[in-house]
Amino acid sequence: MKKQKLSFEDMKELQEKLLYDIKFAYVRTGHAKNELLGFLTVFNARRSFKVKVTRRISYAPDDPRLYLNIYERKDRDARRKSPVFVYIHGGGWIGGLPETREAFNTRIAEAGYFVVSLYYGHSPFYPHPEPIQNIYKAFAWLKEHAEEYNIDADSIFVGGESAGAHLSAMAGAIATDPEYNARFDLHPLSRHQKIAGLVLNCGVFDLEKAVGLPFRNIELYVQSYCGGKPFGALSEAEKREISPIYHVTKDFPPTFAISAQCDALAILTFDLVEKLRSLGTDVEHYHGTGKLAVHAFAVVQVLRISKEAMFGIRAFLRSHTNEQLLPARKK
To answer: Rounded distance, CA 281 to CA 211, Å?
Structure first.
């Protein structure tokens, strides 16, 4: 039996896939090292010890690999319903873990929020739209367990950094644009989840514009998010679907947006803020300046600018939260 010869196009496709696999393995290994280093140093430095943590709770019965961590004040009055803040970690969609964002999350929990930090699945093993669909499974879990934890899961806050900010903005668009909502296979219990506000730290809101910016490995990250398919091979409809800036409406949730002077992706936040303001949407913008204002700087809590950002975040959240759900302010 004769072996069928591969065409030139097939050979080219195999070569491109091999090159992608090699680069992906290299970049992902680097991510793992950086996450470990961050976990041991700045990512969790200055975490709040007024907060208790419950880790690795499975939220998706069909996939035990997906889990969430809970952060809540140790002195929380369990008889009092708490507002919810859902955090979606970054890492180029290919890395990141809830455990390496605990300084940020405990500072939000310290302010009186029931914080849930999600592992939603790394790409390309979980390609679009699986990450956002997994996030909606976590929203459904919150609704199912709202009485158990005495939380207000009817209207939640959502935030994240980098790729996590992209997915947070996508959730905001899904919550406020019925046509966009209908494109996704979402958990029926959370399909119409209300979002009280968004915290978007150095996000990626226009992926086509992002791949043209001088941000290291951005093309690989976007390709991985698309399941290994090169961005240039996507249809125009696919390109627009993965970029939440195209699905922002006047009903988009109130937003606290963060950008950084030394971040090649900062223009993407400026574009989103400009669009939100043009629509009359409630938006606040904190732009970090100086040499330490790098991509996703607000995750750490050891810098002056990250502390300033956290002050703004907490004020923003409080201004959009029913005061009766929060602990009384100290006089």
So the answer is: 27
